[in-house]
Automatic annotation (TrEMBL), chains A, B:
Residues 17-115 form the HTH hxlR-type domain. PROSITE patterns: HTH_HXLR. It comes from the Bacteria. It comes from Paractinoplanes lichenicola. Gene3D superfamilies: Winged helix-like DNA-binding domain superfamily/Winged helix DNA-binding domain. InterPro entries: ArsR-like_HTH, HTH_HxlR, WH-like_DNA-bd_sf, WH_DNA-bd_sf. Pfam families: HxlR. Keywords: DNA-binding, Transcription, Transcription regulation. This is Helix-turn-helix transcriptional regulator.
Amino acid sequence: MPTTSCDRQHDVYDASCPCRQVLDLLANKWSALALGALEDGPRRFGALRDRLDGVSPKVLTATLRKLEDQGLIDRTVFPSVPLHVEYSLTPLGADACAPLAALRQWVVANIDRFPDQAAVARAS
Amino acid sequence: MPTTSCDRQHDVYDASCPCRQVLDLLANKWSALALGALEDGPRRFGALRDRLDGVSPKVLTATLRKLEDQGLIDRTVFPSVPLHVEYSLTPLGADACAPLAALRQWVVANIDRFPDQAAVARAS
DNA sequence: CACCGTAGTACCTTTCGGAAACTAATAAGC
DNA sequence: GCTTATTAGTTTCCGAAAGGTACTACGGTG
């Protein structure tokens, strides 16, 4: 467990600053996609699994748990039958969506400027 | 190797879209920090290692190679003595800095709204 | 020739991540 | 009453990737 005690002002470049942990959480493919998937309203586990094409249930669970622990999303259980669990953004999570959406949109808008991904993979 | 052939329009939510690989590269702690560290001019390997507090040389090398492969940074070797290697942003990399800087800055600006990191770690 | 600085690599351990199977709770159908 | 279906995961297994520490390569300097 790393120490998380940065005095002075906050700085993501300081390994011991809590900012670093938060950046590590948000600067992550699945976190960025999951938060984006919740932007227009709560969604259930299965809906998120479908939307986040390619994610395994194990990783999705882990991602959602981390986001919940950090106060970015809420997890609400409806004890109906069958069981029903809804994930939704907290105010903090909703605010975090802005920079993440910007990143996702930048990627889509600029994808044609990147080299062919198959060629990059071969070169390794 | 995943297939990287998404026809139709581009979408980061599609696992087979090249967007997904690019998002995976950019939505990464070390990539976000490394590109930010190059924002105000070229830097050498050692300078980056110092700036990216906590990064090991191996991980830094891997991160820089991936960014280079994707055309986000340039690697210039100066055959001076001792050897001198300079990393700098390409135009594409410079453009990518904007959303990444926004994300880093959002984290710093909102860090006080997050739960205490030590408490989160204990709860696991 | 030992030593320095720079930019990495080699080796090894640990963790992550993916696929598939399995669980729990309950209800509907036969 | 037994089987099947649904939802939301968990468990297990295993290969891939991340990560840390120590070492190497290179050429000059003292």
